[in-house]
UniProtKB/TrEMBL annotation:
Keyword Amino-acid biosynthesis: no
InterPro entries, alphabetized: ATPase_NBD, Hsp_70_fam, YegD-like
Pfam family, one: HSP70
Top-rank taxon: Bacteria
Protein name: Hsp70 family protein
Alphabetized UniProt keyword annotations: ATP-binding, Nucleotide-binding
Origin species: Ancylobacter koreensis
Keyword ATP-binding: yes
Length: 418
């Protein structure tokens, strides 16, 4: 039975297998090994995945885009239904449709069926709620069985990243693995060595796991709320003194997995009523247009791209011409750090908790292994590295380390692929 490692991320997904000559990720879209975690259903109900899903939405194809699907796990949304065309479909079935598409693409590339999977999972799907965390993993397990995997098991994503890193070391060391992804920030402290990597059972080498439900999509949300949604009327006054436009609409449009809530016809009726009593109705007109034209995902996508540009450029311009000629937001890396600094601090703060769980001090960590897209943000990197100033910093494959490590784990548990 061929097994795979599957990293279903909030922003991107990878799938890999362990071959006799080493682990390898499968190409899932053209020659790309990363597939954006997005699915688009057109009016006929046909689905498109990844970049094709986003392109269809941006090009104005009539249908429904859903992204940030992993964020639904562990929330009440997993048991709710959403409108897709003329049908109401459960969110768990939407996730299943996406995962089925990933599995099919990999099987086509490999030329044979995948019967077993090692699923990556964050240390905490839900912070401080063990029961919700179990429900999230159980939901993912059920979905995996429903799409055809006969054997399903899980591994923490930072542990998977550690297995990738361990392939490249020649001395024993204690490493802290920081996996800052799209939806969660996870940390593990692991004892690694060339000799230990031959062992199948590694439980004694895992010294601590900890994490927090903060990731790249939270940076997108906060940046949108602080920089863009005020142009749509967020925090603007109503005609009646002391009242402000309700904030829930703006939190929905700034949060990937909540955007589609705005497209309920009842919401548009509510917003039009708000406009009549707003002191600046011209701003609410922009919100109405965003809802009518279903611009939510494109709006947050533009914010995400601006954030990514600021990881390598000091300044960027976020054009919003659809709101009016010349409407734009000028952003700097200092703006990003100031507006999302609290998130970076909460992420780095979990390192102390992880060290305490392991019974170690910062100076006991030999290496700090960084992976996940949000480690590219300068202020996030500074916050993390500042907690371990003496550790050697190792750059992992930003989007591939976890998938590679899960592939290694799949080979250990089920044997290498042919």
């Amino acid at each position: 039975m061929t097994a795979c490692g599957l990293d279903f991320g909030t922003s991107n997904t990878t799938l890999g297998v362990a071959r006799p000559d080493g682990p390898a990720l499968c190409a899932l879209e053209g020659e790309e090994t990363t597939l954006p975690s997005a699915i688009f259903f057109d009016r006929k109900g046909e689905r498109r995945l990844g970049r094709a899903a986003v392109d269809a939405y941006v090009e104005g194809v009539e249908g429904r885009l859903m992204s940030g699907l992993k964020s639904v796990l562990g929330s009440s949304l997993i048991d709710e239904k959403t409108q897709i065309g003329s049908r109401r479909v459960a969110f768990r079935h939407v996730i299943g449709a996406y995962m089925q598409g990933v599995k099919q693409r990999a099987e086509e590339r490999l030329g044979h069926e995948l019967g077993a999977v090692v699923h990556g999972r964050p240390v905490h799907f839900v912070d401080g709620d063990a029961a919700a965390d179990r429900r999230a993993e159980d939901a993912l397990r059920v979905i995996a069985h429903e799409i055809g995997f006969r054997e399903v098991c899980f591994q923490f994503e930072p542990i998977a990243a550690a297995l990738d890193y361990e392939q490249h070391i020649d001395t024993e060391q204690v490493a802290l693995i920081a996996d800052i992804g799209g939806g969660t920030s996870d940390f593990s402290i692991v004892r690694l060595s060339p000799e230990r990597r031959r062992l199948i059972e590694r439980g004694k080498d895992i010294l601590a796991n900890d994490g927090v439900h903060i990731g790249g999509t939270d940076f997108d949300r906060v940046l949108a709320l602080r920089s863009v949604t005020p142009l749509l009327g967020h925090n603007s006054p109503m005609k009646r003194a002391g009242l402000y436009v309700p904030s829930s609409y703006f939190h929905d449009i700034a949060t990937w997995h909540r955007i589609n809530r705005l497209y309920d016809p009842k919401v548009l009726t509510e917003v039009r009523q708000v406009r009549r009593d707003a002191a600046q109705p011209e701003l609410i007109d922009r919100l109405i247009r965003a809802i009518e034209e279903r611009r939510g995902h494109a709006l947050v996508g533009a914010v995400e791209k601006a954030k990514i540009r600021l990881a390598s450029e000091p300044h960027t311009r976020l054009a919003l011409d659809w709101m009016g000629e010349g409407v734009a937001v000028e952003l700097s890396d200092e703006d990003l750090a100031e507006r999302t600094g609290a998130l970076a601090s909460r992420i780095s703060g979990r390192i102390a908790a992880c060290l305490a769980l392991a019974g170690l001090k910062a100076g006991d960590i030999d290496a700090l292994f960084l992976t996940g897209g949000s480690t590219r943000l300068a202020h996030v990197r500074r916050a993390i590295i500042g907690e371990l100033p003496d550790a050697r910093v190792i750059e992992g494959d930003t989007f591939g380390s976890v998938g590679i490590g899960l592939s290694i784990e799949a080979g250990r548990r089920f044997g290498p692929a042919a």
